[in-house]
User: Which sequence fits this backbone?
């Protein structure tokens, strides 16, 4: 019987183990996790009648892989959308909070009338954005995302619209993102249509409305239910928590040395952060290890406050994002009780602050969040409860040159029976990570020659 070891019990490792076991339950699969729990950054807390997310709080509907997995797990009746809200979110420009223009495609205006009517941009900013329709297309080469948007649409669109919308997706400064790695679709729009706005308008016509008009989805009781459901379906998969891999050895397969002993495997899946993967592979593939260590990571954090609703000022929509360079520490706030059903008891509000790229203690993060709330509200009531989650290396930064670094890193798979998976490579966010887990599971099955049960598909 072939054996597979998956290192890392976050979303990437969990989905890989699930798809392997689903297609070939006779495989001997061992899942190793250094922490005391599975799920990685999926961290749902249910306390004092509140349900909150320490990490991701939603999946996007237009990337289907997470929703497909939920259906496979029998969770379709627990999928929830966001509460109705118009506008759904605001952007604070440093002086006031203004609605996000309607008709956006990804982060690009796809409705010229809505853009013209938006108070988020000045008349000059709107004219500069409209000029984009007449500009010649640039080269297909990579460039910093902020420079790309400013070149096409102007600085106002970048600072007041695109930077706030994109800043919460990837770690670090969104200006420095690799356009080709983080938003390849936008480069494609420019090359195919000669204009981002023209391409966004065409996309909007082709796609029509989102499913039920909603962009985001979650689960009743939070995304932690997804982790629980996967774990319940792992069957005979051996799960070892509190187990850190210390070294790897090639020995007619793979020898995995851990803090809890050693084990042998025919195939090895590393679903660990890129720096960890690089350290493990240094003795075996120095070139790939060097590339892995060059993939930068940045801190991300969330702070959630529970308040008595009667003491809160009126809150519009699902939350608020902050325009770039306006002196805010937070990237944005989510009014969780107004965004999702069942997240707070009657009469209470739940406010979540999101930070990216800021190194600070838990106490400092809570104070910074309260300071920014005071800037919005004038006076902030005393929180009834506070939850702080810090991820010191929370998000990979897809900076310029990312695709080349990933290509070098994936040369590690020249080592027979080794597979890499995770958010560091080809997409962040739960749907993308789940997709990569499914694809890696297919390749592992092909490598081991494992036969799928009764022709069962991997996905």
Assistant:
């Amino acid at each position: 019987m072939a054996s597979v070891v998956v290192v890392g019990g976050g979303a990437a490792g969990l989905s890989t183990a699930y798809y392997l076991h689903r297609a070939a339950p006779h495989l001997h699969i061992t899942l190793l996790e250094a922490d005391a729990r599975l799920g990685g950054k999926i961290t749902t807390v249910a306390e004092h009648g509140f349900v909150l997310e320490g990490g991701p709080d939603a999946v996007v509907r237009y990337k289907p892989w997470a929703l497909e997995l939920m259906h496979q797990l029998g969770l379709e009746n627990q999928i929830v959308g966001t509460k109705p809200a118009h506008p759904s979110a605001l952007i604070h420009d440093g002086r006031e909070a203004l609605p996000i223009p309607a008709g956006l495609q990804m982060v690009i205006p796809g409705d010229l009338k809505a853009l013209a009517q938006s108070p988020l941009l000045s008349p000059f900013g709107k004219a500069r954005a409209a000029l984009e329709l007449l500009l010649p297309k640039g080269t297909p080469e990579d460039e910093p995302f902020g420079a790309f948007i400013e070149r096409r649409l102007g600085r106002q669109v970048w600072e007041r619209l695109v930077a706030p919308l994109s800043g919460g997706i990837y770690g670090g400064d969104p200006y420095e993102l690799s356009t080709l790695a983080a938003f390849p679709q936008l480069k494609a729009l420019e090359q195919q249509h000669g204009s981002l706005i023209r391409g966004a308008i065409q996309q909007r016509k082709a796609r029509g409305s989102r499913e039920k008009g909603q962009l985001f989805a979650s689960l009743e009781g939070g995304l932690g239910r997804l982790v629980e459901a996967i774990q319940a379906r792992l069957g005979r998969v051996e799960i070892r928590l509190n187990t850190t891999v210390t070294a790897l050895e090639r020995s007619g397969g793979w020898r995995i040395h851990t803090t809890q002993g050693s084990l042998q495997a025919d195939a090895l899946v590393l679903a660990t952060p890129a720096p960890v993967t690089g350290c493990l592979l240094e003795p075996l593939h120095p070139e790939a290890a060097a590339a892995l260590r060059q993939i930068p990571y940045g801190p991300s954090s969330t702070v959630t406050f529970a308040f008595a609703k009667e003491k809160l000022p009126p809150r519009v929509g699902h939350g608020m994002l902050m325009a770039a360079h306006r002196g805010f520490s937070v990237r944005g706030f989510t009014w969780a009780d107004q965004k999702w059903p069942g997240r707070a008891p009657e009469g209470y509000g739940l406010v979540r602050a999101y930070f990216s790229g800021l190194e600070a203690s838990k106490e400092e993060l809570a104070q910074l969040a309260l300071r920014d709330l005071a800037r919005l509200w004038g006076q902030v009531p005393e929180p009834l409860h506070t939850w702080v989650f810090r991820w010191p290396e929370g998000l990979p930064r897809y900076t310029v040159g990312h695709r080349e670094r990933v290509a070098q890193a994936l040369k590690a798979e020249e080592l027979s029976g080794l597979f890499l998976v995770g958010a560091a490579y080809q997409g962040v966010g739960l749907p993308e990570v789940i997709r990569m887990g499914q694809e890696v599971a297919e390749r592992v099955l092909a490598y081991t020659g494992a036969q799928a049960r009764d022709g069962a598909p991997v996905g």
